[in-house]
Amino acid sequence: MANLLYTRVLLKISGEALMGHREFGLDPDTVNRIAGEVKTAVTHGAELCLVIGGGNIFRGIAGAAQGMQRASADYMGMLATVINALAMQNALEQLGVQTRVQSAIPMATVCEPYIRRRAQRHLEKGRVVIFAAGTGNPFFTTDTAAALRASEMGCQAIMKGTKVDGVYNADPMKDPKAERFQKLTHLEVLSRDLRVMDAAAVSLARENRIPILVFSINKPGGLAEVLTGKGKYTIISD
After folding, report:
1. Is 195 in contact with 142 (CB distance < 8 Å)?
2. Are 51 and 198 in contact (CB under 8 A)?
3. Residue 197 Cα distances to 115, 151, 201, 204, 215, angstroms
4. What is the pLDDT along the chain (238 residues), one digit of tens a residue?
5. Measured between alpha carbons, how far is 17 from 26 in angstroms, rounded to an integer?
6. Would you list the domain boundaries of the chain?
7. Which of 9, 23, 125, 220 is the most buried (most CB within 10 A)?
8. Beta bridge partners of 203
9. In this structure, which topology does domain 8-236 adopt according to CATH?
């Protein structure tokens, strides 16, 4: 077992991270690669739970912008996260990692309903738990769901997997002179409007004193590196 900075963590990744080089949907190779990252972290001794967005399939805000009722659009987005969760569960179990999907919207035919104590027990038994369907309520993002579930599970940190290796003062994809922050506080993220996660999620993490570590989910071995205090990342902590 490696020396881990945190033993129980929540990994938040966007639905777009599962697209690979596609314009929408799921890329099996990318899903399998991320599943391999999760397996490595579990092998190192981490208790891991996941929240995956649904933007690769449907984004509620985008639907609302085109005239759809926001609540209906958000429910469609929640269902998209269930599809992603089931895809990740399949990929993890192909690698021999015991996994459970728990949905905030009950759908007993395909996955468990979200029950906090049951989820905690799964983590204690070394299973990966994937929380699907956001909070189960419209008008809340999967970022907020991640902060909520991390608080409920007693997670020591939220790992935010992104396309870049931390938080920058400008978009590093567009500005080559953008500088990466080594460390920020929750209040700095909110006051600077850095949009690492939405304001409700950052506020909830701050209230429950949960650090947020932003790293690149595209770097091979990146998750395990960050868990052991190596690699590049930005930590948001008070």
Report:
1. no
2. no
3. 25, 15, 6, 11, 13
4. 568 999 999 999 999 999 999 989 999 999 999 999 999 999 999 999 999 999 999 877 777 778 889 999 999 999 999 999 999 999 999 999 999 999 999 999 999 999 999 999 999 999 999 999 999 999 999 999 999 999 999 999 999 999 999 999 988 888 988 999 999 999 999 999 998 999 999 999 999 999 999 999 999 999 999 999 998 999 999 8
5. 9
6. 8-236
7. 9
8. none
9. Carbamate kinase (3.40.1160)
Q: Which two tokens stand for residue 55?
A: 């933007």
Q: Are strands 234-236 and 212-216 parallel, antiparallel or unpaired?
A: antiparallel
Helix (H, G, I), strand (E, B) or coil at 8: strand
If residue 80 lies in a helix (H) or strand (E), which one and from where to where? helix 70-94
Q: What's at 158, amino acid-wise?
A: I
Tokens of 101: 């999907």
Q: DSSP letter for 114, please.
A: P
Query: Amino acid identity, residue 186?
Result: H
Residues 6+ apart with CB under 8 A from 164: 172, 173, 216
Residue length of the chain: 238
Residue type, 58: F
